[in-house]
Amino acid sequence: MKKIALVLILISFQSYSQINKFTGKWGSQKCKDCKKEYFFTITIAQSNYMISGTAEVTSEHKELNSGVLDVTGYVYPLGDRAQIKLIEKDGSSFGALLIVEDDKIQFTARGNGYVVPKEVIFKKLYE
Question: Fewer CB atoms inside 10 Å of the end CB: C or N, the chain?
Answer without folding.
Answer: N
